[in-house]
Amino acid sequence: MEFAHVVVLAGGLSYEREVSLRSGRRVADALRALDIPVELRDADAHLLERLAADPPDVVFPVLHGAMGEDGAIRDILELVGIPYVGARPDACRVAWDKPTAKSVVARAGVDTPASVALPKELFHDLGATAVLDLVVTRLGLPLFVKPTRGGSALGATAVHKAEDLTAALVSCFAYGDSALVERYVDGTEVAVSVIDGPDGPRALPAVEVVTPNGRYDYTARYDAGDTEFVVPARLSPEAAERATDAALTAHRALGLRDISRTDLIVDGAGDVQFLEVNVAPGMTETSLLPRAVVAAGLDLGPLCETLLRRRFT
C-alpha cells in the first residue's frame, strides 16, 4: 500500500519550538524526496479540526519539549485514532521525567550518576542555604544542574564551586519548576540512537560530542561552530559495547517504540553512566541521530519511511 497523506508534526509552544520546526522540515524534505505526500503541520489550535477534516494515514511527531515528549500530543492522536511514529503516551511520561527515567534504567542494571531532584518550592519551605549545603555535602563537587523535564540543554549548567550552585539553580528554574542535581561525571559524552526493526531494537553507532569549552549547551547543539562530532565515538571496543547495551536496555526498560536516543557519559575507566533518554530526537543538520544514521550506512529518508510503515495500517 502507498501513502496518500502523511503529516509531520512540528513546532508547538515549548522552549524548543524553533529546533522542532527545523527537525520537522528536515524529516518532511527527506520523505518528499521519496515522493511521499507529506504535509508539515504545527501543533496549534487548528490541529484537531484539520486532522478531523483530512485524517492522515500516519503522523510523524517531531515535537521537542513539553507536549511533544511528555505524551500529551500522543494521547490526542490515540483519542482521534490516528497512528503515529514513536513511543506511546505512558512510556513518554516516564522517559520525560528525568529522575523517574533514571530510576527505571538503574533498576534495569545501568549505572547513572547519584542525584537529587529539588522542586523550587522546597527552598522556600526549608531554606535555600540549608538545602544547598546538604546537597554539596551529600553529592560533592563538581555537580551538574538541569531541569527535571526538558531538553536541548536549556537551563543546564556544570557547577564546580559551591558558591555557583545558587546561580545554576536560578537558571534551571527559568525552564522548569524542579531541578535535577547530579554528581558530575568527567568523561566522553556520547549519544546512542536506537531504531526498532523487524528483528527488534537496533543501536546505531555512538556519536561522540567534543566542545572547546566542554559544555554541550543549546548553542553548541544547534549552532555548532567549533563543536566536533566523532562517529563512531572514540571508545574502546569494550566501552562501545557497554554504551550500546546501555542504550538498548534504556529503550526496552522504558517501553519505548520505534526510535529513541540515549545520552551517556563514558568515564576514563570505560564505565558507562546513563544521563537521559529522548523519545523525539532532534533531526536538524547538527543533530546526533542523523549523524548516526549516516555512520550506519543508512539514509534518513528511507529510515523515516520504514518507521512510518511500521505504523501504517
From TrEMBL:
Catalytic residues as annotated in Swiss-Prot or TrEMBL: 16, 152, 287
Residues covered by the ATP-grasp domain: 102-309
UniProt EC number: 6.3.2.4
Principal cellular location given in the protein's record: cytoplasm
Residues annotated as binding Mg(2+) 2: 276, 278
InterPro entries attached to this UniProt entry: ATP-grasp, ATP_grasp_subdomain_1, D_ala_D_ala, Dala_Dala_lig_C, Dala_Dala_lig_N, PreATP-grasp_dom_sf
Residues that, per the record, bind Mg(2+) 1: 263, 276
Record localization: Cytoplasm
Any one GO cellular component localisation term in the record: cytoplasm
Keywords: ATP-binding, Cell shape, Cell wall biogenesis/degradation, Cytoplasm, Ligase, Magnesium, Manganese, Metal-binding, Nucleotide-binding, Peptidoglycan synthesis
Entry cofactors: Mg(2+); Mn(2+)
Coiled coil (UniProt feature): none
HAMAP family on file: Dala_Dala_lig
Record's protein name: D-alanine--D-alanine ligase
Gene source species: Actinomadura logoneensis
Protein encoded by which gene: ddl
